[in-house]
Amino acid sequence: MYNKFSEIFQARHEYAQSYPGGRVMGCMCTLAPEELIYAAGFLPVRLMGGHQPQTIADPYIPAIFCSYCRDLLAQGLQGRYHYLKGLVHTNSCEKLRSAFESWQRHVAGVQTYFLWMPQVLDHGATEIFLSEVRYFKEQLERDWQVNINTEDLMRAIEAYNENRRLMKRVYELAREVPSRISGEELMSMVLASQVMDKKEHNQLVREFIKELEGREQGEQGVRVMIVGQTSGDLQLVQLLDSLGGNVVVDETCFGIRYFFEEIDDYKEDPLEAIANRYIKRLPCPIKDGDIPRKRVPFILDLARKYQVQFALLVYPTFCDPHSYDNPAIREALLKEGIKVLELAEDFPLPIGQLRTRIEATLESLEFA
Amino acid sequence: MQTVTDKYPTRPLEYFTKMKELRRSIARDTFSAKERGKPVIMGGEGGVHALYAAFDAEVIPAMPTGRDMRDINWVIKLNQAAEDRGYGKDCCATLRIALGAHFLGTFGLDKTRGKHLSPDVIVNLIICQGQIKSHQLHAEYLGIPNINIELPFFTHSPELAKKNFINQCHQAVEKLERVLGRKCDDEKLVEGTKRELRIRISMAKIALLQKTIPAPLKLRHMSSLMAFQLRGVTHRKDVADFYDLVLEEVKQRVSDGIAACENEEFRLFHEGSLPWYTKLGDVLRYPERYGAVYIGSLNNFGIGGCFIIDEQGCWDVAPASWEMGQGIKSREDAFEALAEACLNYSPFSRLFMRSELRLSAAKDWKVDGVVLALDRGCVGLTSGLYESALVIKEAGIRATCYETSSTYPPDFDEKGYQGLMDSFIETLRTRKGASNSHAR
Ligand code: SF4
Ligand code: SF4
Question: Would you say the pTM of this structure is higher than 0.90?
């Protein structure tokens, strides 16, 4: 077991606080143009679920809002992210925007940035988002007295692109049957990528790949895919590993959606290339509002390529965007002969209950 | 608790008869669309209905209408049908109802003739995430194309937002021409736009008359006027004329000192969504037993009307030149005016300012308290309500929240709501008593 990703991920607050120069910027969603933040000399860190009671958020966000956005706000109010210099949010779902707004209003000492991205992602969307990205650059330069030049942007893009290629290589390796990679290794690699300096992470992924190439194939576990939104969570994957399920791929906001596409053609206008990448990347449910859908065929394609036997549709309780998509995803996967279990997660995770439900499904597959 | 006696004269609203006639004629026109060779667009909600006029189309509403919602048991069945197919309570409540109607075969059903009307295309002005996902599902279910026009609620540059909105309108025209196989009639587009603006202006003027003490209308009346906007028919001449008539009647009521509620003692706003099923009247009427009357909300004024708000937080109607639709002569002008209506003059569009605007409205309309409904199935109107409650309370105006669902009756705890209102109004009374004795 390669533990470095998991260890860094668990110690992410300490890692961020020791970042040289102390410039750390929180990102609420995978739609934040991180390359630009990185080029400005910041460490972009994705805010992860804290899995603690969220009562402190009660006066600001009602309990009928998703547990993930309540969790993020609760952590802000508790001072868990006291080291953040800035917080950036690109418009995704309205509940998360509410959490961002409450953060703006009630968490002191953080410079906040909001970028509008439409839900309808046709060609007009790129123009409006590009303009927002350009303005964000100006704001960063003004607020932090930095000059972000083309070379800085290109270097950042290259580090990010390399990170994407390396992680894709690991995902490729997970296609092997049986896979040599545990679910925890796979998911902690992507989670760590979202809280680490990319160059350092690239180094670790290279080391990890080397180790994997020399590793014996493991035992055949039930091949699992996680779909949806795990709130930046390792507990679920650890549980699956312990029960004989092997997460070989995912389609989640904390996994593949974070890194799947590289930035192309960036030499002429890096900012335009960045904006394009975020507009054209794999959509989350909020951005997949047109017909024909994009998510369902993509998930199906992954399920086939990875020979998935069991799909977990995970989302935080009261998350409407995922609730709209799940019936169509479930139907498509069931038709493919894949077992499906839908889990609306509450925080803290009710591990006992989850164990029983997952165990029952895994057993039915093992004895099938 | 102490009840109150009548303080003001009141009289029935005369426009009601006309409103009923109008509803009937809209329904007749909609259901006879195909016989008259007209395309049918599924749409409604926030605006840009002038596009329907431009294609001489009838509109079938994407949102549930009063017709579907009258029978509570039926509403529960519609929800159940959606739930059976996997669309649980976290999904937008109106979607669940509309999907339920597809599944139970009553969507687009003309009950008088037993025939179904199928739309050719969906066109919608998007104000919330629930709508986009809902329309995706409708389009898939009905096998028809879907055109979304999204309001860019928050960008660093208002000009950019406007340009983006106008581009989306042009794209919508191109798509509609392709889908419907007919040309956009620019003259009709211009006429439709002028009517849509006229209605927004009338709505704003009616809302401003609500500042009068006693208020000439109740929120219930304001909501029934809004229903024409949600129904997607503000491009129609008869609807625009109807709003003029309403405005005249409300002005008359104000000059005659006629109250909507004869014992108005406390003025309330109700923010968030209201029940779509028959409980609407009960929810809104309940506080009246104590002389508390709901007179409006940011949602109601902000989505339906066109305002300018000055630095002191005083609301007024959008500028007069614009009100007359002056200068709207071409497609470009029409889209420009619609963009201004939806982005510059609709307070609802100021995404990060809604709490402050709720407060400014509460002050400007001299309300004593604000009641905020947290609708489990509606993200669009529920987000930011707690923040609004805090801002309002900090400014010294009482505010309270209750959980509910606008379309799923079992999620509305009527007794709980009544208990909340009993004590809320009691505190308003105590506070008023205290400040009166202070004044003396
Ligand atoms: S997409 Fe779902 S999980 Fe994510 S913030 Fe929105 S409601 Fe919450
Ligand atoms: S405003 Fe509420 S009910 Fe309407 S579409 Fe949006 S989420 Fe659904």
Answer: yes
